[in-house]
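Lab notebook: predicted structure, single chain.

Context: the supervisor wants predicted structures on file for every construct in the current expression panel, including those that have not yet been purified. This is the next one on the list. No modifications to the sequence; it matches the entry in the shared construct table.
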Amino acid sequence: MPIDESLPPAERSLKIRSQDVTDGPRRAGARAMLRAVGMREEDFAKPQVGVASTWNEVTPCNLPLKRLAERAKQGVRVAGGFPFEFVAISVSDGISMGHEGMRASLVSREVIADSVETVMHAERFDAFVGLAGCDKSLPGMLMAAARLDLPMVFVYAGTILPGHWRDQTLDIVSVFEAVGANAAGEMDDETLAQIERNACPTEGSCAGMFTANTMASVAEALGMALPAGASAPAVDRRRDDVAFDSGRAVVQLLELDLRPRTIMTKEAFENAISVSMALGGSTNAVLHLLAIASEARVALTVDDFDRIGRRVPHLADMKPHGRFHMTDLDRIGGVPVVMQELLDAGLLHGDCMTVTGRTVAENLALLRPPAPDGEVVRRVGQPIHARGGTAVLRGSLAPDGAVVKIAGSDLSRFDGTARVFDGEDGAMDAILAGTIAPGTVLVIRYEG
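Prediction complete. Output recorded below exactly as produced.
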């Protein structure tokens, strides 16, 4: 969705910080260096917009970002700003899991937020577009936005397309499950190899409602990404349009002086939680939303998740617990379908402001999303589960709370013997060695 061009521009200068490096005789040295990277005389009067990306060749999740950053820069230029692209690190959760490397995963979220803050602070950029693809990079960008409180629009790299082999629709979890079946003697090596070769056919983030697709949906519900921007696949040209429109939108946010902490209110976080609950999203949404809220100076606790989960039903039949991928959600209308259904049921705050300069309700009225199809997404009155996909538990093992995903389970109680490991690699070794008996509770410590 494009920005609201009817809104009046601000009469003040849009250079809310960049004058520190461009204005006056004392800044001649800085201007000399800026000329060397492409600025012309007329550009020094323009607001400077960072285009922060986690592009790398480490994982397919981030590969689209180089292309999308170019489109975002074009949008910034068309709107009258001057873009500067820079990159932050990102690690692949899918590649780093199951061994020592996974301990760097959550740390990378903080490094991303810190590095974006560092560049934005040092270079005195006025606003930024934040582009991310793999799991921890999405909350990292949003944490940086909340911390800096400078106009920002979030852009998602997009989901990978599901793979296919024989009569199976595949994703990365299909490979992990095949590894287990092979270790148990239930699948031969050639079948495992074929699943491996066909599970990830394109660039983009993991296909189900895993962390990346959950956080992309959360960013849209939070109001920090353009409407209908979460679900289009990475290889779909709509992603290029979203990136271009986001570049234009961030300049308008400067004109409106509309900043992240104005958008990311307590009610906006409640919207994000509601959408995650309805989608049966990743439990990591709890971890990440708490961190983003902390940066936004919003009081949010696990009790808010439990409270909202008790009233917002689970509506979307999404993998890993369900039948469908992000491309299926996109096919029936994307995240706006879920948001409209929740809004109509009184389960969403329609008056929350968004990066379009409009409210959630105004955005949905313009989009006019279709009703849930009844298969990928159910109606509120006919949910998959009456409560949301995530619950908060308390007890002697977790007096401050533990998060459990109930979207894929109808169990309300489980008894078993605990096997405790101090890392994922030890747990994986035990599973593949066949030493984990049915009914065992696996406890993995020190992973964060």
